[in-house]
Amino acid sequence: VKATQRAVPLSQSDTDFADIVVFDGVRATTLEQWRGLMNDLARTGIPVVVVSSEGVFFHAGDSQDIISLGHFVPSWIMSEYLEACRDDQFWGSCYYHFNDASQNDNLGVRNGALIEKFETAGHSARFMFRKPERWITAEIKQKALAMGGIDSLEAATRADRSAGAVNTIVARIQTDKNGLTPDQQAVFPAEEDLTNVATSRQDLDLLDTEWDNEDSSPRLLSALAAAEVLKVIPSSIERLRNVGRALENQAIEGYALELQLKKKLNEAKHPGQYLVLSHGSISLAVSSVLFCEGGDVLEMLKTHHDPDTWIFIAGRQGAFDAIHVVSNTHIRFVQVTAGKRHSFKLDILDGFMTTLGMAGLTWSHLEFMIVRPEDDHRPFSLLTTRGRLQNYRRFDEEQWHRADYRDNVQYATLDWD
Question: How far from the centroid of its chain's Cα atoms is residue 119's Cα?
Fold first, then answer.
């Protein structure tokens, strides 16, 4: 049974000869319309299987008793993604939905591709395995425009029962005909229905191993979606930071940190002021600040800029958030993050510099800096480098090329005022 929103529910007579009935494509916002048929089948002893790419919460009571103790069916967690893709046949069926992946990728490359796409697709298996990243990105950007404000964002996230599945949150951030954010919970089945398809009530309890303590805490769909949603929501830096930390959503906090860097750069461009990092141990000059979208930064760099010009890049660029044109020989790339880990995409940076070189713009010295919140003392890890970067020197005159390019990275912190 394709249990989609537009499908017409079948009657019990349509399933008289079934030994088992599978409802595919069920969502938290559409499960209610299928509950009657599911209950009828369960009462006759026919096992009912519900398939969903997002986490779904089944209440123990009926639609009038939605606060009863129920059973949570979690969405896929990262460890399950990684384990599934260890299988060569499984990977061969889905690798083409990952950026720059091939069927013969080793486990390290597969794991890197999964981690990278998780930032966009979150817990949704459908988004991870059945949709290219560019489709997901376009859909999230379109749906993000439906958010009405930070209050509705916070309420929707706190009320969500899917532990972060993209599909559920995308459904929640759409407005209904009354202009309200939907808040429909899945209600299925009643207590007597449960016992018809399980040996005991305990068979339906969530096992400790089913909880995803690492990634599900509740998380706003994906890092990309969080950033896209927050772009259209007016709010203060402090509130965004507080909401991000309250929801344990590092994408929201990271977006707040980007805005804080933008604010500090604007303050530092006045005479005698500097961008101060790491409790004052790092002071960077700022002569002017320019702003652009990720797709425009190359063209902007091709024009002449005075020493200590900063370019702040809005949106998801992929490898860095700001560029510091120190001089005509020295250039610094800055990546802001509030996460526990971050990718290191030197292939993007190398292609970027090569394109500029072909336009006659060359820098001999390059620095890559990671900026994190000053009050965040958690361990941080930079993922294995993707690509390489040669023919440049660091600001201390050391060569960039080395066995582990992560040794070249400079780290700094930014305060919140």
Answer: 3
Question: What six digits make up the tokens of 152?
Answer: 């509705």
pLDDT, tens digit (0-9, with 9 covering 90-100), for 93-149: 999 999 889 999 999 889 888 888 887 887 677 778 888 888 888 877 777 776 666
Minimum mean pLDDT range among 121-125, 166-170, 385-389, 397-401: 166-170
Residue type present at position 44: T
- How far apart CA 93 and CA 74 sit, in angstroms, is 23
Structural tokens at position 85: 């893709």
Q: What CA–CA distance (Å, rounded) separates 217 from 86?
A: 26
DSSP string, 214-237: TT-SS--S-HHHHHHHHHTS---H
Task: Look at residue 187 and give its three-state secondary structure.
Answer: coil
Backbone angles phi, psi at 113, to 5 degrees: -65, -40
Decide if pLDDT at 258 tops 70.
yes
DSSP label at 204? G
In whole angstroms, give the CA distance from residue 225 to residue 317.
14
Q: Is the pLDDT of residue 340 over 80?
A: yes
β-bridge mates for residue 293, sequence order: 314
How many CA atoms lie within 13 Å of 134's alpha carbon, on the beta-carbon side?
Answer: 3
Task: Find, among 328, 338, 314, 300, the residue nearest to 416 by Cα.
Answer: 338
Helix or strand run (H / E) with residue 168: helix 166-172
Q: How many CA atoms lie within 13 A of 155 on its CB side?
A: 13
- Span of 143-147, 206-210, 270-274 with lowest mean pLDDT: 206-210
Q: How far apart are CA 80 and CA 52, in angstroms?
A: 15
DSSP string for 345-410? BHHHHHHHHHHHHHTT---SEEEEEEEEETT--S--EEPPPBS---S-B-TTS-BS--S-GGGG-E
